Amino acid sequence: MKDITLGQYFPGNSVLHKMDPRAKLISAIIYIAVVFTSSSAGALAFLAVATVAIMLISGIPISVYLRGLRPILFILALTAALNLFMTRGETVAFEFWIVKIYVEGINNAILMAVRITTLVLGSCVFLSYTTSPIALTDGLESLLGPLSKLHVPVHDFSMMMTIALRFIPLLIEETDKIMSAQKARGSDFSSGGPVKRVRALLPILIPLFVSSFKRAEELAVAMECRCYRGDVERTHMKVLRYGALDFVVMASLLVLLSAVIAINIFVPIYAF
């Protein structure tokens, strides 16, 4: 449970930490566009190198990123298996009874795993890892500000997103404590069939739900005690301003997007 780093913020003094949160949100969107635009092996290899460079620039230890990938290993394995066994091609790499694995299936499995990995790592770099929940709320609210003229509750939506991200590490920590307490009382969560394992989770889920509602109630009381009224006459302690650094990073990502498109067109090494 401690390996799940989604929603956690790691303070630092890197270039990405100093960026305006609005610029980081825009950068994350551009990066996601780059990931889904990469449709060849050459483009994905170039994207992987760029992602590693961004991770190093963030100043966050690589071990943190590796721990963050552990929870999605099942998704990676499932995606790779589906592409491996469901893809049909011209060259058979392995054949046993009714099972045929094609070279195209192996390539697709590898490329899709790389695409998912870069998507998760890059999104985490620009969002939760280098941006505090408060800054993320302010940036999201500012970007969606024009929608408020259409009576869209922009501030409420931003606040809900931030609270959800903030509660993820807390719930993970609470779950780990409950599991440790249940194991100390003799509970076993790793043996037996699927039905037995699901039943063993009941002593965890019930206290977790109770604790979650209690935390939500405490948060609501704290917000009311501080006279929180949403965005009514609300000011910000830190006024958001774009800087030269923000435009440099966003321009670099646009260059990365252009480079990926060019590689897809002129160097189509196994396009899929």
Key features?
two-stranded antiparallel sheet, 272 residues, mainly alpha, single chain
Task: Explain this structure.
- 66% of the residues lie in helices and 3% in strands.
- By secondary structure, the protein is mainly alpha-helical.
- A two-stranded antiparallel ribbon has the order 1-2.
- Helix 1 (21-37) packs antiparallel against helix 5 (103-129), helix 6 (133-143) runs antiparallel to helix 7 and helix 7 packs across helix 9 (202-225).
- The chain is flat and about 70 Å long.
- The model has no long low-confidence stretch (mean pLDDT 84).
How do you describe this structure in short?
This protein is mainly alpha-helical and 272 residues long. Helices cover 66% and strands 3% of the residues.
Poorly predicted runs? none
Spell the H/E element sequence: HHHHEEHHHHHH
User: Can you summarize the main beta sheet?
Assistant: 2 strands, antiparallel
> What is the β-strand count?
2
> Helical stretch count?
10
